[in-house]
Specification:
single chain, about 250 residues, alpha+beta, 8-stranded mixed beta sheet, 3-stranded antiparallel beta sheet, 7 helices
Length: about 250
């Protein structure tokens, strides 16, 4: 998952990966604590000072394998609060495709996000309109191999290439990051005026059909544990929870 959503910069710290991405997205601006540092308090002081120097809120991504095992409790004593409890789900790609309904909705697939795709994701996902932050987000998206899906308001003309999107406003989008023989589903978003029309499933189907041509066998996703509509959809498609994580974030003074 770290490869699928890479930070612009990262520092190895005695078993921890301290990710920095100009403050854009919590995942890319948090510590991935894979191994226990030799001096926990010293490592924490280093992280907090480094993030402060880059105007980033100190944050840790805590999963069942976070190290040391007492890290979550230790962060709580330092004033870190829990944010975004999330489930990690996985399924065989063929299983998901078999559970998807037969959809005829046209879906454009590209290897790079168009400006309209990026604009749609940036605004629909609640990030705002800061041009500098959006440029950083675009860099994050394109640092790793991925497929991008978009459903336009009208089908693209026949002469438009596979790596181009119609300039018209979009109804729905999605991103599938490709890592070895697996792929991660990200940025699934549907215009609020077109929800409950099966567009999210159409996006997933379009991405996974293309992924089968590239040898992908497994697909994973992360979903907030209180997002009941999404969880119901993913359950119907055959996804099962394989792990979970949350963030520990130190509130600003």
């Amino acid at each position: 998952m770290n490869q699928a959503w890479p930070a612009a910069d990262s520092t190895e710290l005695d078993g921890w990966l301290v990710r920095r991405n100009a403050g854009v997205t919590l995942r890319a601006n948090s510590v991935l604590p894979s191994k226990a540092p030799s001096d926990l308090n010293r490592a924490l002081d280093y992280v907090e000072n480094l993030y402060a120097a880059h105007a980033i809120t100190p944050s840790f991504q805590i999963s069942p394998v976070a190290q040391p095992a007492t890290l979550d409790a230790h962060l709580a004593t330092r004033g870190y609060t829990v944010r975004n409890p999330t489930l990690v789900q996985c399924a065989e790609l063929s299983t998901v495709l078999g559970n998807l309904p037969d959809l005829s909705t046209p879906v454009n697939i590209s290897t790079l996000p168009s400006d309209s795709w990026t604009d749609f994701w940036w605004h629909t996902d609640g990030h705002g309109s800061n041009a500098t932050a959006k440029a950083t987000a675009h860099q994050t998206l394109t640092q790793t191999q991925a497929l991008y899906a978009a459903i336009p308001h009208h089908p693209a003309p026949p002469h438009v290439g596979a790596d181009s999107f119609s300039p018209e406003r979009l109804k729905a989008i999605g991103r599938l990051a490709l890592v070895d023989d697996s792929a991660g589903l990200y940025c699934l978003a549907v215009d609020e005026n077109f929800r409950r029309q099966g567009l999210a499933q159409a996006v997933i189907a379009g991405l996974l059909r293309q992924a089968t041509k590239q040898g992908i066998r497994w697909v994973w996703l992360s979903v907030l544990e209180d997002n009941r509509p999404a969880l119901e959809l993913y359950h119907r498609l055959g996804f099962q929870t394989v792990s979970r994580y949350h963030y520990r974030v130190k509130p600003l003074p």
